[in-house]
Amino acid sequence: MAGWIVFAASMLMVIGSIDFFEGLIAVIRKQYYVLTPSQVIVFDMTTWGWLTLIWGIVLFLAGLALWSGAGWARWFTIVACSINVLGQLAWLGSSQYTLWTLTSIVLGIVVIYALTVRWSGYSESVS
Hints:
Elements: H1 2-28, H2 45-68, H3 71-92, H4 98-117, H5 122-126
Helix pairs in contact: 1-2, 1-4, 2-3, 3-4
């Protein structure tokens, strides 16, 4: 069972890294992402890039907290992953680069599954 939690923490750190680099690319190269008229994003590309970059750092830190066995990290991660999946779905229709977006969505769903299946006994197995 502890394997699922460690796997979820690892995948959350990967998701955070993907979000971080998506945001970094949007901040540095403003013309890299081309928004279509049917965009869902309500910010300009620089603002969206900074928000995504900071969100990636938050997800990475939540993955570290989850790995350490913090009880609050489970619920925070479930909520944060749900928000991230919805945000990535909003970006999916506006992006020409769907591979990273789909990767982040699938990993987010796997993390949510891993954290909602079972949790009891994790604190004892970490110690």
